[in-house]
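Your task:
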Amino acid sequence: MSSIYQSLHHPARGYFSLLWIDHFYPIIAFAFLIGIVGVLAYLMRAHKKRIKLIEARYSAKTENDQIEIERLQHSLSDKLNLQEELSRELKFRQGEMMTMAMSIIRKNEFLNELKSEVVKIKSRVSTPETREALSRLSLMITQDLSIDRDREKFQMNIHAQHSNFTHLLKEAFPSMTENEIRLASMLRLNLSSKEIASILNISPRSVEMNRYRLRKKLKVDPKVSINDFIRDF
């Protein structure tokens, strides 16, 4: 027992034990430091990998977003071009309709003037044969004004070009008659009451009365022009 005690407290052995302890702590500290450095290096590598992965995903997303943006831009451009083309076509057709309307108006004005001249001439002649011939001519003019193929074609074109407008109008106002729809379509072309009267071969007063009835049926505000209301419908 005493020998063991002496060996533990031997001066030489105590010295080496202290020396070993003095060297042991720095080694542990150095190893711990290396471990920390290794962990930090691992974490940095992992962080760089995550950053690269995020950057790759972001780059792919950005590229996909750019492709989608370009696709939407092309789609928008195509739609705008189509809308512009349809607008040009609509203006062209409206121009054709106005040309046809003016042609009918000029022809009907000429026929009405001719009829008035025939009536004047008839009032100045006395021979039965001449008066009868003038009466037949006047009747032919009246029939041509009443049965006008150009007018029928014009109304068919209006119905074809304004079919969507007509459909919406009938849905909103189911009680509208065909004559009222025809008048509304003509007002949509911005034709005046006199021009409509000439095309339909009726008096301007009749057109004004029909416009008044149509305004009431459509419940147009008194401050709003019926032409503007119909164009914006």
Remarks:
- Residues 142 and 152 are 16 Å apart (CA to CA).
- Residues 1-10 have pLDDT under 50 and may be disordered.
- Residues 2-76 form one domain.
- The longest helix spans residues 11-124.
